[in-house]
């Protein structure tokens, strides 16, 4: 069986495909992005797209979706689409969402995430995406509270048909506690960096205890896929006779998490991922590896000091 056909239930009751297609794209790969996404949807078996206003790929995704909807090869309800509100548009998530919907050629998204619990001092159109002062330090909006964005997202969720669910990304446990104390919608998901070098065991438990689905970004260790070389991952791949990438994907889906691998390599995309029934003990061993060898790959300067472990 393919890991791509596994679904998980959100706290809204909706179903989310456990494997989503990551859509960060380097400038150099933009030329093949549409072909890659089409292959993912038509041949790879992907039914979940993870994007964001800030990735600059939404218009390309919109072109592919429109083409596949028009040709009847795909229906809107066949595909789960997530987008995100970037901190430069923290004050106006509706504007962010409307721009995303326009570019994606969609009437609604299945999940809208607050990309970071941060507020940048940008203009009303969200530019620059990361404002900096003369010393190169990120400029944060004075007096802003990241929960203001979440409260506005709740309003969108309750009063429009533009989002089926709302969630968060890059929130720590302390931030989730504050959100749960001060607002009345439990996020459907929290998307964070997670892999066998960064298992975040207590964080994962907190989310599970509060019915917040954990979504794992940078599961391969981001560009260059360094996690494919983790010794225990290589050993398990040998044991099960599968490529190492299948172990990195099943580390999440077998534990009830969403995973968001990225590839713009058509051959890899078409291959997909096999389901590998890792035992509880093997999942615990993968966690243990990260407890002993912690490494975070995505450490942008705006996230410094937020409170995530192993930053930088
Ligand atoms: P990944 O961890 O998915 O790694 C991507 C890299 O792995 C690419 O270089 C890709 O190259 C390579 N790769 C993929 N499959 C294989 C394979 N089978 N063998 C060898 N190499 C492989 O990277 P990302 O950091 O992009 O994370 C994935 C997604 O998570 C993002 O695209 C985005 O959607 C989301 N994300 C969310 C964030 C947030 O703040 N919420 C932050 C970061 C990411 P190739 O293209 O050549 O296959």
From TrEMBL:
InterPro entries: AKR, Aldo/ket_reductase_CS, NAD(P)_OxRdtase_dom_sf, NADP_OxRdtase_dom. The keyword Oxidoreductase applies. Substrate binds at residue 115. Transmembrane segments: none annotated. Residues 34-288 form the NADP-dependent oxidoreductase domain. Keywords: Oxidoreductase. It comes from the Eukaryota. The record marks 84 as: Lowers pKa of active site Tyr. One of its GO terms (molecular function) is oxidoreductase activity, acting on the CH-OH group of donors, NAD or NADP as acceptor. The keyword Oxidoreductase applies. The active site is at 55 (proton donor). This is NADP-dependent oxidoreductase domain-containing protein.
């Amino acid at each position: 069986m393919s890991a791509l056909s596994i679904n998980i239930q959100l706290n809204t009751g909706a179903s989310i495909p456990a494997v989503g297609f990551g859509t960060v794209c380097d400038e150099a790969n933009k030329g093949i992005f549409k072909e890659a996404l089409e292959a993912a949807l038509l041949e790879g078996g992907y039914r979940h797209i993870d994007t964001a206003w800030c990735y600059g790929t939404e218009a390309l995704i919109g072109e592919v979706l429109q083409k596949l909807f028009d040709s009847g090869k795909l229906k809107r309800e066949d595909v789960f689409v997530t987008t995100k509100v970037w901190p430069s548009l923290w004050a106006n998530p509706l504007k962010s969402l409307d721009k995303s919907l326009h570019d994606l050629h969609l009437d609604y998204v299945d999940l809208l995430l607050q990309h970071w619990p941060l507020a940048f001092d940008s203009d009303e159109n969200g530019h620059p995406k990361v404002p900096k002062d003369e010393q190169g330090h990120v400029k944060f909006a004075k007096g802003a509270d990241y929960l203001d964005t979440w409260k506005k997202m709740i309003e969108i969720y309750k009063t429009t048909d533009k989002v089926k669910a709302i969630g968060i990304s890059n929130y720590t446990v302390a931030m989730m506690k504050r959100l749960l104390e001060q607002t009345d919608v439990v996020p459907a998901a929290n998307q964070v960096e997670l892999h066998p070098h960064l298992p975040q065991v207590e964080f994962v438990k907190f989310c599970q205890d509060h019915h917040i689905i954990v979504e794992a970004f940078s599961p391969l260790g981001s560009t260059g896929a360094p996690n494919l070389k983790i010794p225990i991952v290589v050993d398990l791949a040998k044991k099960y006779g599968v490529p190492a990438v299948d172990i990195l994907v099943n580390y999440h889906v077998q534990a009830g998490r969403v995973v968001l691998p990225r590839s713009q390599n058509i051959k890899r995309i078409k291959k997909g991922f096999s389901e590998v029934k890792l035992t509880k003990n093997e999942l615990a061993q993968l966690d243990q590896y990260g407890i002993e060898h912690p490494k975070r790959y995505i450490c942008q300067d705006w996230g410094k000091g937020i409170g995530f472990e192993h930053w930088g």
